[in-house]
UniProtKB/TrEMBL annotation:
It is a single-pass type II membrane protein. One of its GO terms (cellular component) is Golgi membrane. Pfam families: Gal-3-0_sulfotr (PF06990). Its main location: Golgi. The chain crosses the membrane at residues 7-25. InterPro entries: Gal-3-0_sulfotransfrase (IPR009729), P-loop_NTPase (IPR027417). GO terms for molecular function: galactosylceramide sulfotransferase activity. Belongs to the galactose-3-O-sulfotransferase family. Signal peptide: none annotated. This is Sulfotransferase.
Length: 505
């Protein structure tokens, strides 16, 4: 048994290492094959409780999760935002432009962005990273390929989690933008005093659908119970099949809970489906000292309201994905950031499946995930209160300026082939000829893990000799090897992106 354990463990470890190496070669076919074997291992582990595979999987769950996240974090999830057409008069735009140019305020440099999932947060993360690099700020980052922390269902803690610079507690961070589950105590401790908090959420129905479709390869523990597809078919299911599964899951509330009960709270099959938004907001301790988790089945309404009130006190505002540009306008207004700071590359809408959940399925989803719906209602209200307190016309004018500036930068920097695409083809955005030495263009284009690695290397260099890795394994992890092996190119990229010369590579 012991030998089997060892063999399995080394097999898995080797697999993860190989996977991580291949990720850098960008060989899609190999990646997809490796991903399938990793998924099969995981499935085997989940389907045979108490087996060696099961134990190893539990142990390396976090690692596997990081690898999976890494595979997918390049994809942008903002395509489903609604475009609102504002009718902003020219005079207002002119006066707002003048106001922004002449206002007397200092831009906020200490910002904690609680990244949620399938909410357009990838674009926001890129905006934050760009701002941090341009302003030479310090980043709060996990020691993993995608920089995420507290990957499981639990809020971030000192005991469980690891980040760059954890061994130097007197050093405080200025920007936080990676995935983690909120824990005010830890965030207050690691970030600069007076750091401003914000986040983003989305309509819980479309969020659930988006999460189910996107993370289907991680939800095997759930859909394998439905009996609608083969265990091996972990991804690439047709939209029809995915909707069939969601309909089945949501057909009967009591049965849905039975399905959920068979899945461990740490499994992504639950994290990605059971209140997939509230889970990022950590936990809440009520007046009786009871700690509530997002996945507790019956959270009383008054507990939820008290929880939201507390979040409302901690956070400056919570953006609503359906009003994306208005939310960015709040950022400009509240943090005294410039229009250029929040300009972003619009991502082409993906082909819509044309399918929708039935009314009955939505009703049951509203019952199962009622805390997410309550969260959305609460922060939709505070969002509009904030907008109205500033003045709706003013916020719309700023939003319009953001849209215009974004289009302007895109025209200057990004190849027409991408900009003119009507969404029928999958085209990667690339820089135009002749702008490779333009740092603004480089920053505008760069997204995701490649940007994260640049900031990770920067932070390791920032701490210099004082830095000690807190990764658990005794031998160097693939992440730290990657940081070492690619240090010259990562430093070059940072220098270029921060506007100190060089060219986009
Ligand atoms: C960036 O900040 C560090 C301190 O955190 C400082 O030593 C360095 O000189 C700054 N670099 C630039 C280009 O401003
Ligand atoms: C969000 O707030 C707006 C403005 O008050 C309102 O029109 C809309 O119906 C709200 N949406 C939800 C889901 O509560
Ligand atoms: C999208 O663009 C392609 C190629 O340019 C074209 O063939 C197709 O008809 C367009 N589709 C729509 C819906 O406009």
């Amino acid at each position: 048994m012991k030998n089997l354990n060892k063999a399995l463990f080394f097999g898995l470890f080797a697999l993860i290492v190989v996977v991580e190496i291949f990720v850098h070669l960008h060989d899609q076919q190999t990646i997809s094959k490796l991903r399938t074997s990793l998924q099969e291992f995981r499935q085997l582990a989940e389907d045979t409780p108490n087996s060696a595979a099961h134990k190893i999987s539990e142990f390396s769950n976090q690692k596997i999760h990081q690898v999976f996240e890494f595979f997918n974090s390049d994809a942008d999830d903002s395509q489903q935002q609604t475009d609102v057409d504002y009718e902003v008069p020219m005079e207002l735009l002119a006066s707002e432009t003048q106001f922004l140019e002449t206002r007397q305020c200092e831009s906020e440099k200490n910002v904690f962005f609680l990244k949620t999932s399938k909410t357009g947060s990838q674009t926001l993360m890129a905006i934050m990273q760009r701002f941090g690099i341009q302003n030479n700020l310090t980043f709060f980052l996990g020691e993993s390929m995608n920089g995420a922390m507290s990957n499981l269902q639990m809020p971030i803690t000192y005991e469980r989690d690891c980040w760059i610079g954890k061994n130097i507690p007197e050093e405080k961070f200025q920007i936080s933008t990676q995935h983690l589950k909120y824990n005010k105590e830890v965030i207050d401790n690691v970030m600069e005093p007076g750091t401003k908090f914000f986040s983003i959420i989305r309509d819980p129905t479309t969020n659930f659908v988006s999460s189910y479709r996107y993370y289907q390869y991680l939800l095997g523990r759930l859909w394998s119970q439905f009996g609608l597809r083969e265990i091996g078919e972990t991804k690439g299911a047709s939209s029809e099949l995915l909707y069939k599964e969601m309909e089945h899951f949501l057909e009967d509330e009591k049965r849905a809970w039975r399905y959920l009960k068979n899945v461990s709270p740490a499994s992504f099959a639950r994290i990605g489906t059971l209140r997939p938004q509230l889970i990022f907001f950590g936990s809440f301790t009520d007046v009786n000292g009871k700690e509530w988790m997002s996945y507790d089945r019956d959270i009383p309404e008054e507990v939820l309201q008290a929880w939201f009130k507390k979040l409302d006190a901690d956070f400056e505002f919570v953006m609503i994905m359906e009003y994306y540009d208005l939310g960015l306008a709040l950022l400009v207004n509240e943090f005294c950031w410039s229009i250029e700071d929040v300009a972003y590359l619009k991502v082409n809408a993906q082909a819509h499946s044309g399918l929708e959940l039935s009314k009955k399925a939505v009703r049951n989803l509203e019952k199962i995930n009622y805390p997410d719906y309550a969260l959305y209602r609460y922060f939709n209200e505070t969002f509009w209160e904030k907008v109205d307190s500033i003045g709706r016309a003013k916020v719309e004018a700023i939003a319009e300026l953001i849209g215009t500036k974004s289009a302007e930068i895109a025209q200057r920097c990004i190849q027409d082939e991408y900009l003119n695409n009507n969404g029928t083809q999958k085209i990667k955005p690339r820089l135009k000829e002749g702008v490779y030495e333009d740092a603004e263009c480089g920053r505008f284009l760069m997204h995701g893990p490649s940007m994260t690695k640049v900031t990770q290397r920067y932070m390791i260099d920032h701490f210099g000799k004082k830095y000690k890795s807190c990764s658990r394994s005794a031998t160097p992890t693939t992440w730290s090897e990657n940081m070492e092996k690619n240090k010259e190119s990562l430093r070059y990229k940072y220098k270029f992106l921060s506007g100190h010369g060089g060219r986009f590579t």
